[in-house]
Specification:
The chain is mostly helical and 177 residues long. The chain folds into two domains: 5-49, no CATH class; 67-175, Periplasmic binding protein-like II (D-Maltodextrin-Binding Protein, domain 2, 3-Layer(aba) Sandwich). It contains eight helices and no strands. The longest helix is centred in the middle third of the chain and has 20 residues, at 74-93. The model has no long low-confidence stretch (mean pLDDT 89).
C-alpha cells in the first residue's frame, strides 16, 4: 500500500493520545501497551492496527552495550541479562506484585494504566513460540529491511555483527543443568 504523503499533514505527538482524543489528528501512532489505554479510559472505542500484521516486526526493548564491555566484563553483561530475564519471568508469574513494585518506585504513575501496560505487554514478551529474550538473524534482517524501505539511514553492516545471543544461550545452558 502506498500513501501519498502530500495528502497528509504530519505533526509531532506525545505519549498520552491527547492529540487523538482532542481531535487534532485522525490517526496516531503509539505503543499498544500505552496510548490505547488513554482512549479506552475515556470511553472511546479503539481500533488498533498492528504494523506486524503488515510485515513490519521490530525488536523492541532490547538491551545493548559495547563490544568493549562484552569483552572486558562479560560476567557483568551476563549477570545483567540474566537478572532482566529473571525479572520478566517473575513478572509473568506474579503480575499483581510486579505492578505493585512499579507503583512503589513510580509513585506518579496510574495504577490502572500500569496494569493495562503489563497485561498488554505480557503476550509480546512471552509469545509461547520462543524463549523470553529470543532474537535471531532473520528477525534483525527484517528490521533492517523495514528501515531500508522507509529510506532510513541504515548501516551496511551485516546484522550478525550487531547483536549477540551468547548471554541468552548461557541462560539456556544454566537452566538445563
Amino acid at each position: 500500500m502506498h500513501i501519498n504523503r502530500s495528502n497528509t499533514t504530519e505533526i509531532s505527538i506525545g505519549y498520552n493520545a491527547s492529540e487523538l482524543l482532542d481531535g487534532t489528528v485522525d490517526i496516531s501512532t503509539g505503543y499498544v501497551i500505552n496510548e490505547p489505554y488513554y482512549a479506552i479510559a475515556t470511553g472511546q472505542d479503539v481500533n488498533i492496527i498492528m504494523v506486524e500484521d503488515y510485515g513490519v516486526n521490530m525488536y523492541a526493548d532490547v538491551l545493548f552495550t559495547t563490544d568493549y564491555t562484552i569483552n572486558s566484563n562479560p560476567k557483568l553483561v551476563d549477570n545483567f541479562v540474566q537478572a532482566t530475564l529473571d525479572g520478566w519471568q517473575y513478572t509473568l508469574e506474579h503480575e499483581d506484585e510486579a505492578v505493585d513494585i512499579v507503583m512503589h518506585y513510580a509513585v506518579n504513575n496510574n495504577l490502572a494504566h500500569e496494569r493495562y501496560a503489563l497485561r498488554t505487554s505480557l503476550p509480546l514478551i512471552n509469545t509461547g513460540d520462543v524463549p523470553i529474550g529470543y532474537m535471531d538473524e532473520a528477525g534483525w534482517n527484517n528490521v533492517k529491511q523495514s528501515l531500508l524501505l522507509q529510506k532510513r539511514n541504515v548501516s551496511s553492516a551485516n546484522v550478525s555483527d550487531c547483536y549477540t545471543t551468547q548471554f541468552i544461550n548461557n541462560r539456556d545452558a544454566r537452566h538445563n543443568i
